[in-house]
């Protein structure tokens, strides 16, 4: 019999509402369609959501714990065996090297599962390791750093008020391709921006390539990769000089004078030269942004993935602050959701004060940078990492210089991977632990409410059951901590409560009486005092529980004086240092490599899904006709891209969408999917362009690598690739 289940897609943060047909007898997903009754996201949907069922039925899916018996050879095991062995080995490693000898990495999809996030945190605190690594160091860490400095907290929901915005300054983002999402969720966001444009709003896209979004926008500014800071500082300077700045009215702000002094010091012609944008264009953008009735500046990965990602993010936020667009209609506002966000963060944000052993870096938002992992694993000495648990992630492909990380992982005493399939980062795993798919879980994710453009809540329903016997991830981490004899959440008594509640559950036959993630969610909902659990559950299509409010931001600023600190010293110093450093060009590697995303993949996963387009499955490097001519490369040629740390071969696509001197390759490709059950040859599509990205060239604040603005050279693949055969292309 078929049943209908309503839930939302958890592949990207658009979280489109879904209507799913399920065959109950065979426990199979029959179809996935958008949910017309979802009051918030109806209208947005894509093929990745439509084909999500293919991941559940992935022919190479891991459905039993698998133990490695020889290189590339695995045998099935029971959970009892897996947990006992892993617990024993982790404890032995901790006995020898201390808790820091165990490192962890969790990737992007974990963010959608509150149950996993909660008990993963509990597990990390049980081990007590400071060597925690996460995807934020490949993604949005720059925002956390800026939030921390300006507002006193690493995380805030600052959502855009798209429908009232008259001027969009969109920097380093391509929402036409990747949806209008990053740290905020805006269903149909890009279509609504285009609607605003048709109604007369101004849309400016800043991107070194003419992206799909840039093509549709009124203005495209082709900035030099990595130099957005100079462009944004120029815009800020002109706004101040023209007197278009206004006192922020919604939030108390200190430091504006220091910002103005900084803008006065910078020379506009020099800034224009730095960012490769004409002075007149900077002046024009400043005038339009500064004089618009309402406006917002937003920046995403195009900005964060560079050495100057944090100061560029800061300057973008300053544009909103000094023109009074913060927490104002048409700008960016604080969405308070329905739980007390700062209280929840305190619960999860265990203050990790650990410094990395070798580079002596502090964590950002509680976690270290993936860039540091290889050396931390391979360099002997006290504090060396000897074991790792990787969950929901693929850092060998998503991170920089994957080969170095791959080699390091190969030398670990213990590697445990918790995933749906065995990918590149799990290649050397001693244990593969099955993951569950979001269509197999059900839960409330209270923190998602803070990133919604409108007050919205939806409970995620389970559509199908996990394969027989497969534990949800939160259960696995709980069992592991129990088996290790270490206190979950690092708190005494928690394990005893778990055992006691389990006993009661077993005695009464009521599973819900055993401690589980819903207890935590219910508690948070109750303590937030805005919504009732049963009302949330009574809205299976999702619930718009209020109107967007302005004016809440001032209440959540937690700096010492409860004011926004617009001019943190270390940012001012960094900009002054950048201004004093002459721009460098690299004769050996004269082109700058940037990144993009494709619609039919999600980072390094889904690209093997049969229902997504096969045409996208070979990687191409997009190159400007003049750069191609200089390199002796034609459209369709097999070419070689080389950087100071790596080299890849792929096809050239010659296109004037690229700025001269810039080439583009999408990330996420070239990750293999292994078959640990049959041992069949791995599958993979495209090449891993992150092999070209150094793990030492980082934004010093966010510790994010320069995935964009990687210096490379281009040669025909056949040509002997030496420095002397370098292409002679200079930056315009
Ligand atoms: N050059 C370049 N590199 C980039 C980027 C870029 O723009 N350019 N983008 C960066 C960004 S923004 C991100 S977010 C990162 C992503 O980096 P990661 O999060 O490390 O990598 P993903 O490719 O998202 O891998 C997710 C893994 O989780 C698994 N998975 C999916 N769902 C589940 C589940 O429910 N349970 C379990 N157990 N596993 C699951 C998938 O099979 C996959 O192996 O990549 C970063 N890397
Ligand atoms: N289909 C699909 N959707 C996704 C994802 C996916 O993998 N596939 N990933 C999701 C995730 S995890 C994230 S974080 C978001 C990311 O969402 P976005 O940040 O919007 O990601 P992109 O689409 O890669 O757009 C980045 C743009 O920055 C430009 N760029 C590169 N270098 C620079 C630079 O130096 N300066 C400027 N100004 N621009 C530059 C690139 O040309 C590109 O057009 O997307 C999410 N949505
Ligand atoms: S992957 Fe597609 S269907 Fe899923 S949430 Fe994102 S846009 Fe919506
Ligand atoms: Mo991301």
From TrEMBL:
Signal peptide: none annotated. Gene3D superfamilies: 2.40.40.20, 3.40.50.740, ADC-like domains (2.20.25.90), Dimethylsulfoxide Reductase, domain 2 (3.40.228.10). Keywords: Iron, Iron-sulfur, Metal-binding. Residues 713-732 are annotated as: Disordered. One of its GO terms (molecular function) is iron-sulfur cluster binding. PROSITE patterns: 4FE4S_MOW_BIS_MGD. Residues 721-732 have a biased composition (Polar residues). The keyword Metal-binding applies. Residues 2-60 form the 4Fe-4S Mo/W bis-MGD-type domain. It comes from the Bacteria. Belongs to the prokaryotic molybdopterin-containing oxidoreductase family. This is Formate dehydrogenase. It comes from Mycolicibacterium holsaticum.
């Amino acid at each position: 019999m078929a049943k209908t289940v309503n839930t939302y897609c958890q592949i990207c943060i658009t979280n489109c509402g879904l209507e799913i047909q399920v065959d109950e007898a065979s426990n199979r997903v029959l179809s996935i369609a958008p949910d017309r009754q979802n009051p918030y996201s109806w209208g947005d949907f894509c093929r990745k959501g439509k084909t999500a069922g293919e991941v559940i039925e992935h022919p190479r899916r891991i459905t039993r714990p698998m133990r490695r018996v020889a290189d590339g050879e695995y045998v099935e095991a029971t959970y009892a065996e897996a947990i006992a062995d892993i617990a024993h080995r982790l404890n032995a490693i901790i006995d020898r090297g201390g808790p820091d000898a165990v490192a962890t990495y969790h990737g992007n999809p974990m963010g959608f599962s509150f149950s996993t996030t909660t008990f993963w945190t509990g597990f990390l605190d049980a081990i007590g390791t400071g060597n925690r690594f996460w995807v934020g160091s490949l993604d949005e860490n720059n925002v956390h750093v800026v939030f921390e400095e300006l507002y006193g907290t690493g995380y805030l929901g600052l959502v855009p008020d798209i429908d009232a915005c008259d001027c969009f300054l969109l920097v380093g983002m391509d929402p036409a391709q990747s949806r209008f999402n990053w740290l905020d969720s805006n269903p149909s966001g890009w279509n609504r921006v285009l609607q605003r444009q048709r109604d007369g709003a101004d849309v400016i896209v800043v991107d070194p390539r003419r992206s799909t979004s840039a093509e549709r926008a009124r203005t495209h500014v082709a900035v030099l990769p990595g130099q957005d800071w100079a462009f944004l500082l120029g815009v800020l300077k002109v706004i101040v000089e023209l007197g278009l700045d206004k006192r922020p009215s919604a939030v108390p702000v200190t430091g504006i004078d220091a910002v103005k002094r900084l803008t006065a010091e910078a020379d506009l012609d020099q800034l224009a030269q730095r960012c490769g944008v004409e002075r007149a264009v900077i002046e024009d953008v400043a005038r339009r942004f500064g004089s618009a009735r309402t406006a917002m500046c937003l920046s995403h990965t195009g900005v964060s993935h560079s050495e100057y990602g944090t100061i560029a993010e800061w300057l973008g936020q300053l544009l909103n602050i000094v023109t009074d667009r913060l927490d104002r209609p048409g700008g960016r506002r604080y969405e308070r959701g329905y739980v007390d966000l700062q209280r929840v963060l305190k619960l999860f944000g265990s203050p990790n004060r650990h410094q990395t052993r070798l580079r002596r870096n502090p964590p950002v938002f509680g976690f270290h940078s993936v860039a540091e992992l290889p050396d931390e694993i391979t360099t002997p000495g006290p504090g060396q990492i000897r074991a790792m648990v990787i969950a929901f992630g693929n850092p060998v492909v998503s991170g920089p210089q994957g080969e170095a990380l791959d080699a390091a992982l190969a030398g670990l005493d213990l590697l445990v991977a918790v995933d749906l399939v065995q990918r590149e980062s799990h290649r050397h795993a001693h244990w593969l632990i099955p993951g569950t798919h979001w269509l197999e879980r059900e839960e409330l994710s209270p923190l998602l409410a803070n990133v919604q453009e409108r007050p919205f809540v939806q409970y995620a329903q389970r559509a199908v059951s996990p394969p027989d016997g497969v534990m949800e991830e939160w259960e696995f981490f709980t069992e592991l901590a129990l088996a290790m004899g270490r206190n979950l959440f690092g708190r005494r008594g928690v394990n005893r409560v778990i055992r006691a509640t389990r006993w009661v559950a077993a005695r009464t036959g009521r599973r819900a009486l055993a401690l589980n993630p819903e207890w935590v969610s219910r508690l948070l909902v109750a303590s937030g005092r805005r919504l009732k659990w049963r009302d949330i559950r009574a809205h299976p299509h999702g619930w718009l529980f209020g109107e967007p409010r302005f004016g809440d931001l001032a209440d959540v600023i937690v700096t010492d004086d409860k004011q926004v600190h617009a001019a943190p010293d270390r940012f001012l110093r960094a900009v002054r240092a950048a201004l004093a450093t002459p721009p460098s060009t690299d004769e050996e590697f004269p082109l700058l490599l940037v990144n993009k995303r494709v619609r039919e993949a999600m980072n390094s996963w889904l690209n093997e899904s049969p229902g997504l387009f096969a045409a996208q499955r070979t990687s191409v490097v997009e190159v400007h006709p003049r750069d191609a001519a200089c390199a002796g490369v034609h459209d369709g040629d097999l070419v070689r891209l080389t950087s100071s740390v790596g080299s890849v071969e792929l096809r050239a696509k010659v296109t004037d969408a690229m700025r001269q001197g810039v080439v583009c390759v999408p990330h996420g490709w070239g990750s293999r999917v292994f078959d640990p059950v049959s041992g069949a040859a791995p599958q993979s599509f495209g090449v891993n362009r992150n092999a070209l990205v150094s793990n030492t060239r980082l934004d010093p604040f966010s510790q994010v690598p320069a995935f964009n603005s990687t210096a490379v050279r281009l040669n025909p693949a056949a040509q002997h690739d030496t420095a002397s055969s370098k292409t002679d292309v200079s930056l315009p």
